[in-house]
Amino acid sequence: KVGWYNAVLQPAFHLPYPDDTLAFVVLSTPSMFDKALKPFLNKERLKIIRDPVDQCVSHHLSRVKEKFPDQKVDIIYDYEILPSRKPKFLAQTAAHVAGAAYYYQRKDVKLDPWGKKKIYGVCIHPKYGGWFAIRGLLLFPEIQVLFLEQSAPVDCVSTEEKRIELLEQFNFHWQDGRYRDIIEVKERYSEEQKAYFATPPAERLRLLGLTREAQ
């Protein structure tokens, strides 16, 4: 429910819907790369004008919207920002309140070792660890779910030591991606996918054999 999200945030970040409004948080799993992104790029290779992943997600969520012709469906993407430069929604908070992934933050560590350093939180999925992404929100403004029960996210990094290790790795060594494997995972990005996301955006199409000329 939108109300679960609004309840844990300052008013500046609230979504402008009634509390009982139904919302879905959309995640992409490791297999998205082969099952969705590569087929999309092959089909749309002449139309890629922004970020290929963003366009792929937009394409698929638009198709979801078409499945509900009698319903109003609002989509908010993870990359969208307001005129104030704030994000349109806080993806990790949304994933946590929806029970999709646990958002580990500084407040989840009792004996904080970081002093005055800025420490960012990170979501961990019980099956994919850090090998997933939060892509958007699907909102159904005309559907009110008064009796929907909230499910807590799985607390899969449950010890103090592991939480400190997770936040250390994410904040200070995020480039090596070790934080993604803080738990035993069922599936992770392929080597090709890792290379793709490690490549500067301007060169990603060439990596997949789709050149700028085609674009």
From TrEMBL:
The gene is Mmachc. Keywords: Cobalamin, Cobalt, Cytoplasm, FAD, Flavoprotein, FMN, NADP, Oxidoreductase. Its EC number is 1.16.1.6, 2.5.1.151. Its main location: cytoplasm. One of its GO terms (biological process) is cobalamin metabolic process. It is found in: Cytoplasm. This is Cyanocobalamin reductase / alkylcobalamin dealkylase. GO terms for cellular component: cytoplasm. It comes from the Eukaryota. GO terms for molecular function: cobalamin binding; cyanocobalamin reductase (cyanide-eliminating) (NADP+) activity; demethylase activity; FAD binding. CDD domains: MMACHC-like. The keyword DNA repair does not apply. The keyword Flavoprotein applies. It catalyses: apo-[alkylcobalamin reductase] + an R-cob(III)alamin + glutathione = cob(I)alamin-[alkylcobalamin reductase] + an S-substituted glutathione + H(+); apo-[alkylcobalamin reductase] + methylcob(III)alamin + glutathione = S-methyl glutathione + cob(I)alamin-[alkylcobalamin reductase] + H(+); 2 cob(II)alamin-[cyanocobalamin reductase] + 2 hydrogen cyanide + NADP(+) = 2 cyanocob(III)alamin + 2 apo-[cyanocobalamin reductase] + NADPH + H(+); apo-[alkylcobalamin reductase] + adenosylcob(III)alamin + glutathione = S-adenosylglutathione + cob(I)alamin-[alkylcobalamin reductase] + H(+). PANTHER family: CYANOCOBALAMIN REDUCTASE _ ALKYLCOBALAMIN DEALKYLASE, METHYLMALONIC ACIDURIA AND HOMOCYSTINURIA TYPE C PROTEIN. It holds the Pfam family MMACHC. InterPro entries: MMACHC (IPR032037). Belongs to the MMACHC family. Its cofactor is FAD; FMN.
